[in-house]
């Protein structure tokens, strides 16, 4: 990798904003909108559709993205039209008779995969929350809150009848749940009674700091026993650096809003510890999965370099640098910015690649699929461009 001097913040701000407005969003506006309803997310490098199945959480993420940008960046009618196009498709086809969100649909909206997890409900709640703010649509607000309550109701048994695990023999708690709920509650803050909102966030923040951030190593474990211990098993040793880093900026955002300097500092310290552990010193970039003890992993993709991991980390580092004045965050941001912008953007056909091998070479030349859609790239570019406006601490 060629090392280049990092531009000044003003130039960086323009770089992130231009990538969002002139590259990434136009790719999705041009290629993903299905005239029959909803979005087509399985797009190859050029934006050609290679599969027409519709994954509900990606439909919802795209509704959220265009609604959020309409609410926070610019009230472009075309962005609201895109959000409405997806929201109406989801409203018509996305849920079963009990209000649970399917995982996937065919092109026409017929269900393909049952609502086997709560993550789809989470992103549906986020989508309809932002869409309700954009439109004043009372039904959208109701859908957002109903989906949120459904996530809370199902949290202790998120897969329900679709779970393969025997729950009593080795009970485990997942970091994804308090992390997800912390972000989701912030998205729906305008709709939740203030006392309830504060109480919920107190609980989720405490759960993250007391159970999932390991006191000895400072790392975030993906799964822990109910007492916070780590069974010597695949799941018990698993680290998901991207989740840990993304979750820490969720936690930092809450801490900054509350002027909780101790919690904000803990969030940044954890970000730096994860990076020290998960950075690939031979080839650069952040590993997708790691074992806390260096043992073999079940995840065969453990050494891939994934788009969302690097994007969420850029945002976390920039938040720690700009909002808290942590020089170590800026030093890491310089390194990660260089790696990310040299490897993930596609200057020929637009948008960003999602999957690199360990050496940083493109592994799958696609722009969207079952897991990658219009979400992490635009969210990071927007949030980073806003942070880069400053003011920077002296």
Describe the structure.
This protein has 394 residues and is mainly alpha-helical. It has two domains: 1-31 and 173-394, Glycosyltransferase (Alpha/alpha barrel), CATH 1.50.10.10; 54-162, no CATH class. The protein is built from 13 helices and twelve strands. It has a three-stranded antiparallel β-sheet with strand order 3-4-5. The chain has a three-stranded antiparallel β-sheet with strand order 10-11-12. Helix 4 packs antiparallel against helix 5, helix 6 crosses helix 9 (241-258) and helix 10 packs antiparallel against helix 11. The radius of gyration is 20 Å and the shape is globular.
CATH top level of the largest domain is: Mainly Alpha
Question: Got a strand count?
Answer: 12
Strand content: 5-15%
How many H/I helices?
Answer: 13
- Determine the structural class based on helices, strands and strand pairing: mainly alpha
Order of helices and strands: HEEEHHEEHHEHHEHEHHEEHHEEH
CATH fold node name of the largest domain = Glycosyltransferase
User: Mind summarizing the main beta sheet?
Assistant: 3 strands, antiparallel
- The percentage helix is 40-55%
Number of domains: 2
**Overall mean pLDDT:** 96
**Strands ordered across the widest β-sheet:** 3-4-5
What is Rg?
Answer: 20 Å
Low-confidence stretches: none
| Assigned CATH architecture of the largest domain | Alpha/alpha barrel
Distance between the termini: 31 Å
Question: Topology of this structure?
Answer:
Blueprint: H1 9-31, E1 42-43, E2 49-51, E3 54-55, H2 56-72, H3 77-93, E4 104-105, E5 111-113, H4 119-135, H5 138-154, E6 173-174, H6 176-187, H7 194-212, E7 223-224, H8 234-237, E8 238-239, H9 241-258, H10 261-278, E9 290-291, E10 305-306, H11 307-324, H12 327-343, E11 355-356, E12 362-364, H13 376-387
Antiparallel strand pairs: 1-2, 3-4, 4-5, 6-7, 8-9, 10-11, 11-12
